[in-house]
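Section 3.1: Structural characterization of target chains.
Under the original work plan, the team committed to producing a structural model for every single-chain target entering the pipeline before any wet-lab resources were allocated. The record below documents one such target. The sequence was received from the expression subgroup and is listed exactly as submitted; it comprises 342 residues.
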Amino acid sequence: MIPTVEWKNDHVVILDQRVLPGEVRFLDCEIYEDVAEAIRNLSVRGAPAIGVTASLGIALGAKQYPGADLKGFLLHMEQVCHAFASTRPTAVNLFWAVDRMKRILASASPSTIQDMQKRLQEEALAVLDEDIRVNRALGKFGSAIIRDGDHILTHCNAGALATAGYGTALGVVRAAWEQGKQIRVYADETRPVLQGARLTAWELQQDGIPVTLITDNAAGALMKQHKIQCCVVGADRIAANGDVANKIGTYSVAVLAKAHGIPFYVAAPSSTIDMQTPAGEGIPIEERSPSEVTCLYGDRRIAPQGIDVWNPAFDVTPAALIAGIITERGIFAPQDLKEHFS
């Protein structure tokens, strides 16, 4: 499995997901600004991966500080943390990671700059290792919902590429496959950036897990033909009441699943659960460039020049449409989150 993000020789190395599947290319980030830009421009994406990458980027920012003045270092780190918090608004794992790194700074002060740099690097690497362990635990719990012979529909990419490794929704799939269950995944292409076509299909193909790519608007027809037994998706933020923000189009899949009597599950680490946001309407929804809709790969225009475009990156699926939320601590009904995660 190709690593999504790594710490190598005091650099952050990121798999550039913008060019997959045609090219496997890595970004060697020597300064924290390059890491922040990689998050902003979708070189790295997926809520857990964004959180891990931000942690590593903050540790890199600490290493960059050239002076010996402790007050100056702490002001520098405020700037670094703010830079990462400003990259993308919806994925709560980003803010969870930034806050976690801030707590290390607070607990380490007063101390030497060298000691704080060391502790920040250790914490960032712990975040990375924990993410992989959490995903494996989540996958093991989630595999219980998958029966031998099931066909599973997923939307966007919630695999190893969206995490530090193994995956959330695809972690569930991987765990079921490793148990010997004969399954097939149907992957929505996921317009407009095609994370399903470019990333999910590629990732599953690399692992030898049977996968069929479909257009987003084919999901309902598949369900009507009884070819889907369950839906499993990831999440970028889960509100306290169980409403879930995920890639645009997830809500449509959930509505279709409900209409056809198909269980719809969300797989995400507990760091994606935001108890400070009571309900889905409070989740900030990122809107991205119109060019993602009007052009393919940034330069091939497929819509009229000057056309008005609405391009939200995410939508919110109400808790009432969700059969269960799969976490590293088990599977919970959306209405039970407050009891278990407050």
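Residues 113-142 form the longest helix (30 residues).
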